[in-house]
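User: Some background: our group keeps a shared notebook of sequences we're curious about, and every so often someone picks one and asks for a predicted structure to add to the entry. Today it's my turn. The entry only has the sequence so far, pasted here. Could you supply the structure so I can complete it?
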Amino acid sequence: MSSPADVAPELLDRLRLVCLRLPETYEEPAWVGVRWRIRKRTFAHVLTVDADHQAARHRAAPPDQPVAVLILRAPVVEAHALVAGGPPFYRPGWGDDVLGMVLDEDTDWGEVAELLTESYCLLAPRKLTDRVAPVADRAGS
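Assistant: Of course. Here's the predicted structure to add to the notebook entry:
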């Protein structure tokens, strides 16, 4: 697995653009990779999975190269539908509402922003989620 420094800086920058705009969020190093939290709940976690961690990597992607993955929360029905559609989504293997996504050159960053916002809203208190504009409303900002 990775250390925080193993996640490509350009990926971290793109994720920070969304995550740190959400009310009362903060970023911190995780046991591997980097995570974003609302209070004490993690709503997004990015890490690099490599060949030394076959089980985790196999669920994410088959390539021999290290791959960056984003782990977040989604409504159960949505998580299952996205995983059923195949790559870049996969099931990390814990929790019905946990969704994994491979981040690569084909990543749809609009979709990532929507998923991150939704993950935040699932875990944040109502008074904070009421302050979150829908992703479509924030597209111009």
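Suggested note for the entry: The first strand starts at residue 25 and ends at 29. Helices lie at 9-19, 54-60, 76-84, 109-123, 126-129, 135-138.
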